[in-house]
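Morning F.,

Quick status update on the modeling queue. The single chain you submitted on Monday has been processed. Sequence for confirmation:
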Amino acid sequence: MQGLKRKYYRFRHARYYGGIATLDAVGCCLLCAYCWNYFRNLNPEKYGKFYSAREACEKALRIVERKGINKVRVSGAEPILGKKSFKHLVNLIELVLDKKPEITFILETNGIILGYREKFCKRLANYPVLVRVSLKGWDEKSFELISGAEGKFFEFPLVALKNLRDYGVEAWPAIMHEIFGKEGREKIRKKLEEFGIKEIEEEYLEAYPFVIKNLKERNVEVKY
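Structure tokens below.
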């Protein structure tokens, strides 16, 4: 962050969600072995430029208008790293929806900070956002191997999901199919049920050579 400016390295149209304007940022509180944006998040100082929420909004809406789509997201990094990045995100959401109320804003997050700061979940309930929480393991050990963070943070995304839903935000978990496998899926399913959550989205591994290398170095098995 630079004041309330967030660092982005690319603004693009993506095919996901039926077509979505995507603002690719850098900077994350995790360093997941299978992250397609691994090197930019490892060295965020080397990539991108700082943009205000208004500048990012203008970039997103130009893509929306050019492609005739109605969805916007921030991707490539963690949108919520602390108070300043959350303020930038909220400003961005407000600007986008003020100019085009018909837009669907999708927040993709690892849920760590949202699980730590409940008031952020409460604030998001003021907006018609959809929140997709990407889970990085099915227990503390797998979370450490996959994310590179301490296992004690494993439940933070689960707490975030519960809090978001309690405040009326439409939120759901997503897991990596080839990493969780049958056993991991069953374990996280049972864990989510403790938090009152039943549905799970499955995403699929983008097996870039550096991703496979990272997974091998961390002894994370790929379960095709």
